[in-house]
Backbone:
């Protein structure tokens, strides 16, 4: 079994920054990719940023230039640096991990609120 624990969410003013972290533990042999998704009430879960095992990154258009995903392979940890935050970034952010063998896992989520 694999466990994902997110941290770093909270309340921030528009224009501010937050750094989310996600630590993976358990039966992890080979990670294919790690991602951050977000979800707001009444909407589906949307992909925010992805980083592959080789470090290739991909971002949603809405966060390009403001968010940066990074990964520490030795610690099975992924981070999301969020700058220039906007009220529309308010959401529950979920960590997602996909193993090379196929199974994927979700964290429980961390709430990010951007408000003055």
Residues:
């Amino acid at each position: 079994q694999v466990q994902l624990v997110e941290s770093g969410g909270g309340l921030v003013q528009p224009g501010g920054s937050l750094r989310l972290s996600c630590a993976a533990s358990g039966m992890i042999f080979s990670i294919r990719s790690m991602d951050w998704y977000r979800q707001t009430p009444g909407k589906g879960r949307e992909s925010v940023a992805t980083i592959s095992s080789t470090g290739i990154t991909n971002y949603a258009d809405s966060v390009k230039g403001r968010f940066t995903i990074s990964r520490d392979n030795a610690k099975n940890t992924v981070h999301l640096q969020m700058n220039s935050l906007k009220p529309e970034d308010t959401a529950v952010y979920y960590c997602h991990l996909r193993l090379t063998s196929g199974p994927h896992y979700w964290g429980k989520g961390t709430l990010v609120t951007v408000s003055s």
About this structure: The two ends are 40 Å apart (CA to CA). The CA atoms of residues 45 and 61 lie 15 Å apart. The chain is about 0% helix and 55% strand. The mean pLDDT is 94.
